[in-house]
Amino acid sequence: MGYRLLIVDDEKDMVEVLERRCLKEGYLVSVAFDGQEALAKVEADNPDVILLDLMLPKLSGIEVLREVRQRYHSKWIPVIIISAKNELGSLKDCYNLEADHYLTKPCTIDKVLTGIETMLSLIPLRKNE
What we know:
Blueprint (H helix, E strand, L loop, with lengths): L3 E5 L3 H13 L3 E5 L2 H11 L3 E4 L8 H11 L7 E5 L4 H9 L4 E4 L4 H19 L2
Parallel strand pairs: 1-2, 1-3, 3-4, 4-5
Helix pairs in contact: 2-3
């Protein structure tokens, strides 16, 4: 069984590139293009890792992150922020809400895959907390 990823971004080209490469790497992938759809997919698909943009329609990435942390506080779901926002305030907001990693667009697909692999390697350690 492959690990499940949820890719959340309103840029369809970005989603397609990430989805194609992650599928090639053997991950099971679901996608969402806005914040409300993202929360529904978290509930329905139970992802192992979430790749989350901050600038989304309906609910922002910050709102999605906040809601994920409130709803699923008893289960660690790694969240990797992938955003064009590179201000220190955005970074602080995300880490204050327990984002696990922050990548600034544009970034390479290899950096994203390394982030995913790192988060997945930590899952067994986090289960013991």
